Amino acid sequence: MIKHGIGIFDSGLGGLTVMKAIKEALPCENIIYFGDTARVPYGNKSPETIKRFAKEMTDFLCSKNIKILVVACNTASAFALEYLKTILDIPVVGVIEPGSKSALEVTKTKKIGVIGTKGTINSGVYENILSRLDSTVEVQVKACPLFVPLVEEGWVENKITEDIAKQYLADLTGIDTLILGCTHYPILKKVIENILGDSVIIVDSAIETAQVVRNTIKLNAMEQKACQGQSEFFVSDDPGKFREVSRKFLDEDICQEMLLSKVILMP
Ligand code: DGL
Predict the structure, then answer these.
(1) Are residues 108 and 58 in the same domain?
(2) Which of 3, 36, 83, 134 has the most CB atoms around its CB within 10 Å?
(3) Atom number in ligand 1 closest to CA 120
(4) What is the pTM of this model?
């Protein structure tokens, strides 16, 4: 069993985009990933339900002796991050603040767009964090609920996906920076880039989150001494499907060696 790893949870597969960035930034670290594939999506569930799910995912990861928790899911970060910080005695990192900071570093016009699930967008979390970090920033938000099922279906370079993306993104006007405020959206980055053109910088919070995890581990002197970290995966539904779809999110070699188990959770 992997001990003293980085615990990462997401509502399903999407958090693997965050895990990939963390693995690249911290190749020596052990990682334990838990995807709540039985209860995904979180994006349209109530804050109370998401908080309960987040607590259960966290309890499971803590039983594996993790040294730091990464809430890779934007929706869970929006509704449960502060709560988890109050109940845990290990560092807890979410994806919203790192993505917001990164957007503020690159924007020139201070007009920032954010796309995410209905839950994340309706929570107002991005507007709150961005305006707390810089009160002069103008934020435009747009929920894109069809993006998650399109990615899960593997419909990425697809005319229907392009048309849907065009319709969603048309509501964001005059922005020079766009935050991908959902784990699945980095998979659609090329489609989004093609629609928005060169004048808009796309911010993928996974990369920035990985830097925050690296800094936090260093600051707390929690570095792993081994030269090659190991990864272990847990899911709450069919591991076979997870293995198959994870190829879209991760490198081939991680998929080959994937140590994967199923955990039963109540609905
Ligand atoms: N992981 C979710 C997020 O980043 C997207 C998928 C879902 O709706 O559960 O918000």
Answers:
(1) no
(2) 36
(3) 10
(4) 0.93
